[in-house]
Write a structure and sequence with these properties.
Keywords: Iron, Metal-binding, Oxidoreductase, Vitamin C. By secondary structure, the protein is an alpha+beta fold. It has a single domain, classed as Sandwich (Jelly Rolls). The protein is 28% helix and 19% strand. It contains ten helices and 14 strands. The strands form three sheets. Strands 1-2-10-7-12-5-4-3 form an eight-stranded mixed sheet. The protein has a four-stranded antiparallel sheet with strand order 6-11-8-9, with no helix packed on it. Strand 8 (254-258) and strand 9 form a beta hairpin. The longest helix has 25 residues, at 174-198. The chain is globular and about 60 Å long. The model is unreliable at 1-6 and 51-57 (pLDDT under 50).
Length: 368
């Protein structure tokens, strides 16, 4: 990896960030302008390479088949065990036969592309760094806080608990975004039931706690990069919600951190082309008192593009709720005391957003 001296007097990072932000054109704007070199604000610092899995080694990701889950109690019990094992070890699993039609999945990916490939002058009306708005578009929510800028543009739509005003959502993706997220919320009910049972609670326990009442949809657009070895699509992090449902295309680039090994998770097998990836996230690790693990992940930049994804975060974000979350009391004992203090979703989210993707865990701030 090329080493860049960021101490050169002529390099004013803050000014370059400001100039990039003021274009309101994002990373796509740079690509459209025909750049052939990655601007310095995107260049990752030189560091030792991570361990990566041998491409020739067979590696079995946890895959959960939800077919028959409502009709077959024996199969449901098996699925609960699979979900529990994946949540304790990997921190994620893929689901197939999840009930969301292939038409909806494909149209949702197309909707993300349509939004970002609108004329820049049209997109600018949604460009903002006010993350409390119902619909936002920008490049790098932590642009002025993170140590390095990612090769990625994003839109964010708040879907629940307060439904968005339809007129605020962009017409190029409005209908499919609402259709897809409605079905994701139905899937979320099933997933939270399975997770409740897997951790030894009643099926409705997590839903009754409000874990499934909020949803945010994040559409990510990773343009083709002229020098992908110098930058990242998304820096290493764990998300800040309870559960993330990820829809991604087949370009690849998603890396999962598993037992000090970096594993490339791509959709190259037809069997999994309609799968969704389910991440256990920091707030879930907190309420499970470390029983279930959140998963660190990152996204590579790529010469091929655009890569698109739609991540649905189960969280209430900045919604006006005073509900407090700490380790679930039924999981606490003399031998398993609480490891985290109680917090609100708003406090947790605000800390995450202010910290940015800086390589440190949000959970450390809330640990007792």
């Amino acid at each position: 990896m090329e080493v860049i001296n960021t101490n050169e007097a002529k390099y004013d990072r803050k000014a370059e960030l400001q100039a990039f932000d003021e274009t309101k054109a994002g990373v796509k704007g740079l690509v459209d302008a025909g750049i052939t070199k990655v601007p310095r604000i995107f260049v990752q610092p030189s560091k030792s390479e991570d361990s990566t899995i041998d491409s020739n080694k067979k590696f079995s990701f946890p895959v959960v088949d939800l077919d028959g889950i409502k009709e077959d109690p024996i199969k449901r019990k098996k699925i609960v065990q699979e979900v529990g094992h994946a949540s304790e070890t990997w921190g994620f699993f893929q689901v197939i036969n999840h009930g969301i039609p292939s038409r909806v999945l494909e149209e949702m990916k197309d909707g993300v592309i349509r939004f970002f490939e609108q004329d820049t002058e049209v997109k600018k009306q949604w460009y903002t760094r006010d993350l409390t708005k119902e619909f936002t578009y920008n490049s790098n929510f932590d642009l002025f806080k993170a140590p390095v800028t990612n090769w990625r543009d994003t839109f964010t739509a708040t879907i629940a608990p307060i439904p968005p005003n339809r007129d605020i959502l962009p017409s190029v993706c409005r209908d499919i975004l609402l259709e897809y997220t409605n079905q994701v919320m139905e899937l979320g009910d099933t997933l939270f039931e399975l997770l409740s049972e897997a951790i030894g609670l009643e099926p409705n326990h997590l839903k009754d706690m409000g874990c499934s009442e909020g949803l945010m949809a994040l559409g990510h657009y990773y343009p083709a990069c002229p020098q992908p070895e110098l930058t990242l699509g998304t820096s290493t992090h764990a998300d800040n919600d309870f559960l993330t449902v990820l829809l991604q295309d087949n370009i690849g680039g998603l890396l999962i951190f598993y037992r000090q090994v970096v594993v490339h998770l791509s959709i190259t097998n037809d069997k999994f082309s309609l799968s969704l990836t389910i991440f256990l996230i920091d707030q879930f690790q907190l309420i499970s008192n470390d029983k279930f693990k959140s998963v660190d992940h990152r996204v590579l930049a790529n010469k091929v593009g655009p890569r698109v994804s739609l991540a649905c975060f189960f969280m209430t974000n900045f919604a006006p709720t005073q509900r407090r979350y700490g380790p679930i009391k039924e999981l606490i004992s003399e031998h398993n005391p609480p490891k985290y203090r109680e917090t609100t979703i708003k406090e947790f989210t605000t800390y995450f957003n202010n910290k940015g993707l800086n390589g440190t865990s949000t959970l450390l701030h809330f640990r007792l």
